[in-house]
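Notes from hallway chat w/ T.B., transcribed later so I don't forget. T.B. wanted the structure written out for a chain they're using in a teaching module, and asked if we could keep both sequence and structure tokens in one place. Agreed to drop them here.
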Amino acid sequence: MNKEHFPKLHIRGDVNGDTGDINFNGDVTVDGVVKSGCNIKCASLSTQSVQGAKISLTGDLHVSHGIIDAHTITVRGNVYAEYINNSKIKALGNIVVQKEIIDSELFIGGRCLNKNGLITSSLINARSGVVAGRVGTQKASPSKFQIGAEGIIEMMLSELDMRIKKKSDEIKAIKKDIADFESEEKILHIKISDALYVQDRAQIDLREIEKQLPTIEASEDIMQVQKMMKVVKELKEKAEIAEKTINEAFERQAPIAEQILIKQRRVEAIENEINAIELKKRGVKELAVKNEPKAEINVNSKMMSGTYVAGKKAKLVLTQNLSRCRIYETNNEKMFDSKKEDTNNIDLIFNIVALS
């Protein structure tokens, strides 16, 4: 659907316990704050700030101020915010932050863009690299950067696979229920068949006795008449029991058939949901192929010692402060003489150059 034709929802105030959760197939604008305990699922979301809410978007997240204490944010597009504090965000696009990123975990399919801000005590997993202003402070714990890796792609594919498995397991459980109902249905068919036979046999025997009864009564053989009447009573009781069995079985058959139909439809619905998830997986994989990973960090101000940087293969812990630099992963061949024995020292395949 063209974004211009997406339906739009405008909340004039906060999203909180009074408004309830939002599940909307379009773009949502919130004039106030999305507060803790609320869930929003929509295309794109624009709001003043996010405070501990759960967000799931197929588009972009625009936050005028900050994202605070939010540990379940998943965005298929980009994230724009003034600051991020104590939050966990997964975005297939870029995350653009004007000021600080503090005590947070960001998993990004694109780039982390924090050109003039501060990143401290955070984990940044960015498939296409990072542009940072300042990284770290004297007192804060060091930040960790994982760049050029498939973290977000692998994470999203793993989550989608888990959803597929969960739904596949649900289908298995439902099919078992269907099989149990079908087994019960077969048992009922046998019960009905056996009861019909008993009923028919009793009716045949009763008709035969009715033919013999005038002759027996005429013989004035009281014992024979009593015996015959006892047989008639027993046959009628058998017929009544058989009739009751048949009725009960027929009454049970109807809800069983209805349950089987309901469960078969549920299986079809879940299969459609699995197909939709498979399409999402394909989209994530296509994005991975389309955008080449980039293992580099550009630091516009200063990066403090102790900062950890990992690429596809390389790992690096800064032993001194760095100013205005570019850290990027390069091939061993460019950094080492192939005859040297220490070419497997992966700390040395990061190159650090000064920014002009």
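Follow-up for T.B.: Residues 334-348 have pLDDT under 50 and may be disordered. Might be a good example for the class.
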